[in-house]
Write a structure and sequence with these properties.
This protein is an alpha/beta fold. The chain is 30% helix and 25% strand. The protein contains nine helices and 17 strands. A hairpin with a 2-residue loop joins β11 and β12. α5 (260-272) runs parallel beside α6 (289-305) and α8 (332-344) runs antiparallel to α9 (350-367). It is elongated, with a radius of gyration of 27 Å.
Length: 373
């Protein structure tokens, strides 16, 4: 029985403008190495073919070098790769695909299906019904013709499409490039491999989104995987097994700090983060100067070890304690201001005084010379 690897939404050439240049470049580079790992996995699992359900490239304007690098990344798997264009790399009259053809960059074992049709791979006992996008957006179901498509007897019927299953993907219900939710059943498909939804999602027992293989968002939707699919005969349900493949793990934390132990727990969590972490951390609550020093040290260590850590402290208030203020060793006028602001925290202007005290204490703390060990 055919054994397939289903993947989609590689989006080679994607840029990460929200990150620092060093991190952005490495995250973009990871998309190539993830494709290399997909190829290695396909070889290790002895799959009969790899299905790529659209958005191989992030844009039509990627460089010629990027095109060549992508196809070079496939070399670890010598079996057939079967690809279709998606909305990011639609098969326009002039497209990234036509450039790849002019460059002679597409290897002979890579089948890029630029037109809708039935493509029979008799040696694999499989017929691929393809629904490539020839423009970025359509408002009719490009898989509708699957229902009446004829394939040679004895071949498994596998659909390959890129778009939004209607009525099931809440964020995309009214989106372009619609696909009927019961297409696998109505078209008598043994499996329908979909792309466009960037998370892993099962539509029904024969219809799956593989999601993007390299995480790219702070969203827990099962991204970062590929699907190992084994087709079964006589109308049996295919066996579908997700396999993790992502290089970087994206996490989003929202932490409220109210007591000293909260800071300790957060620091312990930072110490446990693996090196391949991309973390978005939002902090709220209150923290004193001593705890802030400890936290900043822990963040500095973690930022040096992990791929990327972004910290938002806009909702975190610095509230110096008596011990914090004493440790600043401020005298003269500044000492008097600190003392007055500290007293006013108990009066009608408590919030203003607390904010001013935090700012002044923080500035004094930052200006203190480092103690020699």
């Amino acid at each position: 029985m055919p054994k397939l690897l289903h993947t989609a939404d590689w989006q080679i050439g994607r840029q990460y403008g929200r990150f620092a240049p060093e991190d952005a470049a490495i995250l973009a580079e990871a998309r190539f190495s993830t494709v290399e790992r997909i190829a290695a996995l396909a070889t290790h699992e002895l799959v009969d073919a790899v299905l790529v359900a659209g958005d191989v490239f992030d844009a039509q304007t990627v460089s010629d070098r990027t095109i060549r690098r992508l196809f070079n990344a496939l070399q670890a798997y010598s079996g057939p790769w079967v690809m279709i264009p998606g909305n990011h790399d639609a098969a326009l009259a002039e497209s990234v695909w036509s450039r790849a053809q002019r460059l002679s960059a597409i290897p002979s074992n890579v089948h890029v299906l630029l037109q809708a049709g039935v493509h029979e791979f008799t040696e694999l006992r499989m017929a691929v019904l393809s629904a490539p996008l020839t423009q970025r957006q359509t408002h009719h179901d490009l898989t509708a013709w699957f229902d009446s498509a004829e394939t040679s007897p004895g071949l498994f019927r596998v659909g390959l499409a890129h778009g939004s299953v209607q009525g099931l993907l809440a964020d995309e219900i009214d989106s372009s490039n619609p696909i009927a939710p019961d297409r696998a059943r109505s078209a008598r498909l043994d499996y329908l491999a979909l792309g466009d939804w960037h998370g892993l999602k099962r539509i029904d027992e024969r219809t799956w989104y593989s999601g993007t293989p390299e995480q790219e968002r702070f969203k827990d939707n099962g991204a970062g995987q590929v699907l190992l699919v084994e087709l079964a005969g006589n109308g049996e349900t295919p066996a579908v097994e997700p396999r993790p493949i992502t290089q970087y793990e994206w996490q989003s934390w929202e932490e409220s700090l109210t007591v000293a132990s909260d800071v300790d727990v957060l620091i312990q969590g930072l110490e446990r983060l693996p090196a391949n972490t991309v973390l978005q951390l939002a902090l709220s609550g209150e923290i004193d100067l001593a705890a802030q020093n400890e936290l900043q040290q822990a963040l500095s260590v973690a930022q040096g070890r992990c791929r990327s850590i972004e910290v938002d402290m806009a909702e975190l208030r610095l509230v110096p304690t008596d011990e914090d203020i004493a440790a600043l060793r401020a005298d003269g006028y500044l000492g008097e201001v600190l003392a007055e602001l500290h007293e006013r925290q108990q009066g009608p202007d408590a919030e203003t005084a607390r904010d001013a005290l935090a700012i002044l204490a923080g500035m004094l703390r930052d200006k203190q010379p480092m103690e020699k060990s």
